[in-house]
């Protein structure tokens, strides 16, 4: 009898320790996410949602559960995974903490059912709220990062592809498109994978030109589609709600259609005729000014823009530009990137 009592007490104590540890874990993870929503994204509603979730967790974190804590006797405190010692980016921090919160809530849900019949349902409901938070955070982040980007590097297949892109990233670039119209798929896949990883290291968005399949394969942030490429609706079905879709536009009709079809951003051009897109006539400055007056999504002027004519482009109310040769063929891509960013008044947004 004494033994059974002792066992029951042991189980109860273990339960309390599990609940206490996971309440702590979930609260800490949420606090980490909340700080980014507040200071990184300036997003009041996401910050509020984190705070509410933390308060609800605090409500369940009773003195009885806290009293069960025995940190020196906890066999798990010394165990860490090498990934925890290093995070490659803010994204990685957010991802790790979302995971930590979701796992902790699942543990609370399962063991909570044994401790208090109301706990299971309450933590399940919170877990679903964290999934929603995760979707909003991911979607929102990409949109916000896109909005902050004034300079868009569209790559050309050069011998120094990776070194040039990395130099531009070191110069502060935050938006890269992989464009290669001729390479074999095997090469494109490998290049896209490497560029995607490179962009992640510098907290830059990575977009694949033309190819929805490659964008999905490398887990890119989105795809850029021209007028002759896949319809936006189909790309959206394949890519989901959270990835970015860009569309090239050459005239007012294209612009309105792209926005109405759900493009997250548009390319506007070619501003000038350019050998990079041989055979496509310039759309001209009238269309550029039209875009400045009517575009309701971020738009990037593209085509023949370089450091010499940037002032003329800026005079047509252009705030965002997409560049191929002027950076890919620059002698000093990092310095050229810094010049573009400074002229585009990037300030805090590209930090
Ligand atoms: C930002 C941006 N704008 C326009 C284009 C051109 O796309 P598209 O018309 O499909 O031509 P290709 O680049 O595929 O030759 C772009 N890539 N990026
Ligand atoms: C892909 C594309 N679409 C319209 S213009 C253009 C190429 C722009 O290249 P560059 O900056 O070298 O003129
Ligand atoms: Mg295309």
UniProtKB/TrEMBL annotation:
Does the record's keyword annotation contain Membrane? no
Look up the domain of life of the source.
Answer: Bacteria
Q: Where does 4-amino-2-methyl-5-(diphosphooxymethyl)pyrimidine bind?
A: 177-181, 209, 248, 277
Q: Which reaction does it catalyse?
A: 2-[(2R,5Z)-2-carboxy-4-methylthiazol-5(2H)-ylidene]ethyl phosphate + 4-amino-2-methyl-5-(diphosphooxymethyl)pyrimidine + 2 H(+) = thiamine phosphate + CO2 + diphosphate; 4-methyl-5-(2-phosphooxyethyl)-thiazole + 4-amino-2-methyl-5-(diphosphooxymethyl)pyrimidine + H(+) = thiamine phosphate + diphosphate; 2-(2-carboxy-4-methylthiazol-5-yl)ethyl phosphate + 4-amino-2-methyl-5-(diphosphooxymethyl)pyrimidine + 2 H(+) = thiamine phosphate + CO2 + diphosphate
Tell me which residues make up the ThiD2 domain: 17-135
Which residues does 2-[(2R,5Z)-2-carboxy-4-methylthiazol-5(2H)-ylidene]ethyl phosphate bind? 274-276, 304
Which residues are involved in binding Mg(2+)? 210, 229
Q: Name one GO cellular component term.
A: cytoplasm
Q: What is its EC number?
A: 2.5.1.3
- Residues covered by the Thiamine phosphate synthase/TenI domain: 151-327
Q: How is the cofactor bound?
A: Binds 1 Mg(2+) ion per subunit.
Relate the protein's function as given in its record. Condenses 4-methyl-5-(beta-hydroxyethyl)thiazole monophosphate (THZ-P) and 2-methyl-4-amino-5-hydroxymethyl pyrimidine pyrophosphate (HMP-PP) to form thiamine monophosphate (TMP).
Q: Where is this region: Unknown?
A: 1-129
Protein name stated in the entry? Thiamine-phosphate synthase
Family stated for the protein in its record: Belongs to the thiamine-phosphate synthase family.
UniProt GO BP: thiamine biosynthetic process; thiamine diphosphate biosynthetic process
Ranges for the region named Thiamine-phosphate synthase are 130-351
| Keywords from the UniProt entry | Magnesium, Metal-binding, Thiamine biosynthesis, Transferase
Could you tell me which Pfam families the record lists for this protein?
Answer: ThiD2, TMP-TENI
Known pathway: Cofactor biosynthesis; thiamine diphosphate biosynthesis; thiamine phosphate from 4-amino-2-methyl-5-diphosphomethylpyrimidine and 4-methyl-5-(2-phosphoethyl)-thiazole: step 1/1
Cofactors, names only = Mg(2+)
Q: What species does this protein belong to?
A: Stenomitos frigidus ULC18
Q: Output the Gene Ontology terms for molecular function.
A: magnesium ion binding; thiamine-phosphate diphosphorylase activity
């Amino acid at each position: 009898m004494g033994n059974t009592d002792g066992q029951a007490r042991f189980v109860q104590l273990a339960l309390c320790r599990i609940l206490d540890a996971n309440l702590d874990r979930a609260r800490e993870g949420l606090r980490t996410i909340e700080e980014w929503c507040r200071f990184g994204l300036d997003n009041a509603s996401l910050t509020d949602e984190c705070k509410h979730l933390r308060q609800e967790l605090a409500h369940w974190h009773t003195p009885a559960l806290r009293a069960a804590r025995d940190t020196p006797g906890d066999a798990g405190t010394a165990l860490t995974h090498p990934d925890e010692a290093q995070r490659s980016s803010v994204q990685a921090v957010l991802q790790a903490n979302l995971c930590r919160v979701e796992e902790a809530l699942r543990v609370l849900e399962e063991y909570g059912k044994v401790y208090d019949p109301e706990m299971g349902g309450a933590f399940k409901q919170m877990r679903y709220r964290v999934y929603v938070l995760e979707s909003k955070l991911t979607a929102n982040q990409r949109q916000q990062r896109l909005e902050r980007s004034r300079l868009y590097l569209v790559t050309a297949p050069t011998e120094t592809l990776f070194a040039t892109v990395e130099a531009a990233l070191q110069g502060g670039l935050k938006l890269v498109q992989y464009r290669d119209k001729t390479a074999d798929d095997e090469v494109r896949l490998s290049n896209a994978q490497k560029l995607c990883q490179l962009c992640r290291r510098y907290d830059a968005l990575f977009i694949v030109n033309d190819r929805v399949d490659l964008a999905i394969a490398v887990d890119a942030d989105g795809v850029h589609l021209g007028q002759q490429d896949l319809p936006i609706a189909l790309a959206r079905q394949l890519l989901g709600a959270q990835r970015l879709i860009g569309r090239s536009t050459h005239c007012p009709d294209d612009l309105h259609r792209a926005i109405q079809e759900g493009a997250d951003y548009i390319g506007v051009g070619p501003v000038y005729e350019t050998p990079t897109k041989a055979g496509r006539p310039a759309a001209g400055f009238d269309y550029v000014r039209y875009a400045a007056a009517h575009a309701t999504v971020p738009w990037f002027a593209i085509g023949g823009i370089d450091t010499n004519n940037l002032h003329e482009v800026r005079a047509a109310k252009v705030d965002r530009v997409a560049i191929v040769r002027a950076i890919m063929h620059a002698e000093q891509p990092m310095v050229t990137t810094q010049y573009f960013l400074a002229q585009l008044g990037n300030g805090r947004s590209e930090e």
